[in-house]
Write the structure tokens for this entry.
Amino acid sequence: MAKELLYLQQGKRENKFKRRWKTHSVLDIKGRRKMCYREISLFLDMYSQNQDEYNKFIDLFDESVTEYRNMIKDIPDKIEEEVVE
């Protein structure tokens, strides 16, 4: 997958790729995470055969990002609890 992403980045710099499907994501992502999100969603765009399939991949990707954020949000609390005990 890393080689594919490097290929996509190079193609993007050279304007070889155009998005075929519209993204309906509502995530609020900033900075380097937004760049990564765009690269992965471009990969999903190229892989998808139609808008419906792309929407399903984006929904799954967004859900994964949200679940990861929730998991990370809980980690500092657990660390503090272990230190206090």
